[in-house]
Write a structure and sequence with these properties.
The complex is a heterodimer. In chain A, strands 4-5-10-7-9-8 form a six-stranded mixed barrel. Chain A has a two-stranded antiparallel sheet with strand order 2-3. The radius of gyration of chain A is 31 Å and the shape is elongated. In chain A, about 60% of the residues lie in helices and about 20% in strands. In chain A, helix 2 crosses helix 11, helix 2 runs antiparallel to helix 12 and helix 11 packs antiparallel against helix 12. The longest helix of chain A has about 45 residues. Chain A folds into two domains: about 190 residues, no CATH class; about 200 residues, no CATH class. By secondary structure, chain A is an alpha+beta fold. In chain B, strand 9 and strand 10 form a beta hairpin. The two termini of chain B are about 20 Å apart. Chain B has seven helices and ten strands. Chain B has one domain: Rossmann fold. By secondary structure, chain B is α/β, with parallel strands linked by helices. In chain B, strands 6-7-8-3-9-10 form a six-stranded mixed beta sheet, sandwiched between helices. In chain B, strands 2-1-4-5 form a four-stranded antiparallel beta sheet. The chains are: A alpha+beta, B alpha/beta. At the A-B interface, helix 1, helix 10, helix 11 and helix 13 of A face helix 2 and helix 3 of B.
C-alpha cells in the first residue's frame, strides 16, 4: 500500500501545477461548505443562547405564526389581559401596544415604531438587559416623556438626540428622559430603532386602545408549555375564534429558530455544493488528461504484469489523494473564512456572534472531498484500466 | 516451448480488412535465440505481441508451455506476462517519474513482493547489467544505452523464461547495440528463450535461428 501511495504521489508531483490547481478547486468547494455551515451554527447559537436565558417567558400575539411568517389577526382586549393574569402559575403579565407613527426632531420627520406598556414591567424586560446610556427609565406618570433606542438617538436624525431634547410624536411634544445603550443581538431589533412610552401615552399618540402583544412570566419553567396552551384557549374563547392567539414559550421559539436555521443552512450548503460540483468536474478533467498523457506508461505497466485492477486502484488512489489534500486545505480555509465572515457580518448586521466550528462539519467536509475524488476519479481510472496493453504501449 | 497454430490477426482499417498475421505456424523451443526479421509492416511486432501475451489473436492459437493463451482472460494474461515474459522495447519505456531501481522493482511490485526484498532483487539485477552506480538516477539522467540496460534489468526482474525484444537496439548506436546483444546472448546462454524483432541484418546474424516475415506470413 505504501508503495502505491508513493507511485501515486510521484505522478501527482510530476504534474505539480495542475495538481495544485485541482486541489484548490476542491478546497474552495469544501471551504465554502465548512465556512457557511460554521457561520450558520454561530448565528443560531448566539441567538438561541440568549433566548435560553428567558425560559420563563411566554409571548402572546394576536395572530398565527408559521415558520418565519407572522399574520396578525387583530388585537387583544383589556379583558384578555385580565383573564391571562388569573391563570394559575402566571407571575407577571405585560400588555403592550405598538405602532408606527411620525416623529419629528428639529424639523426633520420620519416614521418610527413606538412601544407602550406598563412601565415597571417594560423596564424589567428591556432596561435590565440592555442598560441606559443616559438619563433614567419611565415612571407610570411620565405621560409626556419618552426613552429612545440607540439608533433613534444616533442614526435617525441629522443631529444626535440627548436627554432633555424634545421630540414631536404624532403632533404631541415629548421630552427625552433616557437613551438606551446599543443592544446585543437579540435585543437589537427590539430596542435600537424604537421609542418607548407609558401605555397611556402610547395609546394616545397611536390613537388606539388595542393591546397587540402580551408577555407572560411564569413561576415554573416546566409548566410554561401547559400555561401557554391555557392562555391560547382563554383568549380564543374570549374572541369566539378557534385559532386567534398564539402563545409561544421560549422553548417553542427555540425550536422555530432551529427550523429556520436548518433551512438557512440547507440553502447555504446547496450553494456551496455547486462549487463542489465544479470542483469534481475539475478532478475528472485532470484525471482524464493524466490518463491520456500516461497511456504509454499504463501500457508499459500492463506489459510488465500489472493487472487491470492494479491500474484502477493506482488512478483512484491518485484522485483520492488529491481530493483528500483538497479537503484538508478546504477545512483550514473554511475555518479562517468563517472567522472572517463572522467578524464582518457582526459589524455589518450589528449582531454579535462567532463562527462555531463543529468537528462533525470538518469530518464531513473531508469525507465529502474524498467521496468527490473517488467518484470523479472512477471514470478516468476505469478508462485507464481497460486500455489494451499493446495499443497503449504503441501510443506516443 | 512456444507454438503458434494458424495464428491470424486481422485489423480493420476503414472498411478494409488487413491481415497483420496470416496463418502463422511457428515453434520455438526452450532456450532458443530467435530473430524475426522482415520489412516494416510485415507483421513482426504483431507476432511478438501475440507471443508476449500483449494482444489476442483474431483466430488461431498461441501456446506457451502448452497453455492456449487465446482463451485466457486479461488478468490471466497479465499473470503470464508477469511470471514468464520479460519485455525489452525499442523506446526503453521506463516510467520517467521513477528512478532506475524503482523501475526495475516495478514488476515485482505488481507481483506483490515485499518492498525490502523487491529493492534488494532490483539492485542485484541492475548490478548484473553494470548499473550498480546508477541506482537512483531517473531515466532522464541516463544515456540511451543505460536506459536500455535498465529496461533489460527490469525484464529480468521476475526471472522470466522468455525475453522478448522489439527492436531492442533500434535506438542506440552500433557499439551500444552490440553490447546489448552481448547481454541478450548471455541471457540465452543461461537457458532463457530470447526472441527479438529487428531489421538489422548484423544483429539478426547473431541469433541462432532467423525467421523471415513478409505480408503477415513466416517464410523460413
Amino acid at each position: 500500500m505504501r508503495d502505491k501511495f508513493l507511485l501515486a504521489y510521484r505522478s501527482i508531483r510530476e504534474r505539480r501545477t495542475r495538481s495544485i490547481l485541482t486541489v484548490l478547486g476542491i478546497a474552495v468547494g469544501i471551504a465554502a461548505i465548512v465556512s457557511l455551515m460554521s457561520v450558520g451554527y454561530g448565528m443560531e447559537e448566539s441567538i438561541t443562547g440568549e433566548l435560553t436565558t428567558f425560559a420563563d417567558l411566554i409571548s402572546v400575539v394576536p395572530g398565527k405564526i408559521s415558520g418565519a411568517t407572522y399574520v396578525e389577526q387583530g388585537s387583544f382586549t383589556d379583558r384578555d389581559v385580565k383573564d391571562v393574569q388569573r391563570i394559575s402559575g402566571v407571575k407577571d403579565v405585560l400588555a403592550m401596544t405598538y405602532g408606527a407613527t411620525v416623529v419629528e426632531y428639529k424639523e426633520k420627520k420620519r416614521p418610527i415604531m413606538v412601544f407602550g406598556g406598563d412601565t415597571k414591567e417594560l423596564g424589567s424586560f428591556y432596561v435590565e438587559p440592555v442598560g441606559l446610556k443616559e438619563g433614567r427609565w419611565l415612571r407610570e406618570n411620565d405621560y409626556k416623556a419618552c426613552v429612545i433606542g440607540n439608533r433613534v438617538a444616533t442614526d435617525f436624525f441629522h443631529k444626535e438626540i440627548h436627554v432633555n431634547d424634545k421630540l414631536i410624536i404624532n403632533g404631541e411634544k415629548f421630552i427625552v428622559i433616557g437613551v438606551f445603550e446599543k443592544a446585543s443581538t437579540l435585543y437589537a431589533t427590539d430596542v435600537d430603532p424604537h421609542i418607548f412610552l407609558t401605555l397611556r401615552a402610547a395609546k394616545g399618540v397611536l390613537q388606539t386602545d388595542e393591546v397587540k402583544y402580551i408577555m407572560v412570566r411564569v413561576y415554573d419553567i416546566n409548566e410554561a408549555a401547559a400555561i401557554a396552551e391555557q392562555i391560547e384557549e382563554t383568549i380564543n374563547d374570549n374572541h369566539g375564534l378557534d385559532e386567534f392567539a398564539s402563545a409561544l414559550t421560549m422553548g417553542s421559539m427555540l425550536e422555530q429558530i432551529g427550523t429556520v436555521f436548518s433551512i438557512l443552512r440547507g440553502v447555504l450548503v446547496s450553494i456551496a455544493a455547486i462549487a463542489l460540483v465544479v470542483a469534481s468536474i475539475g478532478i475528472m478533467n485532470t484525471m482524464l488528461m493524466s490518463v491520456m498523457e500516461r497511456t504509454h506508461e499504463i501500457g508499459v505497466m500492463k506489459a510488465i504484469g500489472a493487472k487491470s485492477r492494479d491500474v484502477l486502484s493506482l488512478f483512484l488512489l491518485e484522485s483520492s489523494i488529491v481530493s483528500l489534500v483538497g479537503g484538508v486545505v478546504g477545512c483550514v480555509l473554511g475555518v479562517i473564512l468563517a472567522r472572517i465572515i463572522s467578524i464582518a457580518a457582526s459589524s455589518a448586521l450589528g449582531i454579535e456572534f462567532g463562527a462555531v466550528i463543529k468537528p462533525a462539519v470538518l469530518i464531513g467536509g473531508i469525507a465529502i472531498a474524498i467521496a468527490v475524488g473517488v467518484l470523479s476519479g472512477f471514470y478516468p481510472a476505469r478508462k485507464a484500466s481497460r486500455m489494451s496493453p499493446v495499443e497503449a504501449v504503441r501510443y506516443e | 516451448m512456444i507454438r503458434t497454430e494458424h495464428l491470424t490477426k486481422i485489423y480493420r482499417m476503414g472498411g478494409a480488412e488487413v491481415y497483420a498475421l496470416h496463418d502463422v505456424n511457428l515453434e520455438i523451443q526452450d532456450g532458443e535465440f530467435v530473430a524475426i526479421v522482415g520489412p516494416s509492416g510485415s507483421g513482426k511486432s504483431t507476432l511478438l505481441n501475440m507471443i508476449g501475451c500483449l494482444d489476442k489473436p483474431t483466430s488461431g492459437s498461441v501456446f506457451i508451455d502448452g497453455v492456449d493463451t487465446a482463451w485466457l482472460s486479461d488478468n490471466e494474461l497479465a499473470e503470464i506476462r508477469r511470471e514468464k515474459i520479460g519485455f525489452v522495447f525499442q523506446q526503453y519505456n521506463l516510467v520517467h517519474t521513477l528512478n532506475a531501481l524503482e523501475n526495475v522493482a516495478l514488476p515485482l511490485f505488481f507481483a506483490g513482493m515485499k518492498r525490502e526484498m523487491r529493492m534488494e532483487m532490483a539492485k542485484e539485477k541492475l548490478e548484473s547489467v553494470g548499473l550498480g552506480d546508477r541506482l537512483y538516477h531517473k531515466p532522464s539522467e541516463l544515456s540511451g544505452g543505460q536506459q536500455q540496460r535498465v529496461a533489460i534489468a527490469r525484464a529480468l526482474a521476475n526471472d522470466p523464461e522468455i525475453i522478448i525484444g522489439d527492436e531492442p537496439t533500434g535506438n542506440v548506436d552500433t557499439t551500444t547495440g552490440n553490447a546489448i546483444m552481448d547481454m541478450l546472448e548471455g541471457l540465452n546462454k543461461e537457458g532463457r528463450t530470447v526472441i527479438v524483432v529487428t531489421h538489422n541484418i548484423e544483429i539478426a546474424a547473431r541469433a541462432g535461428i532467423r525467421k523471415r516475415m513478409r505480408d503477415g506470413r513466416v517464410r523460413d
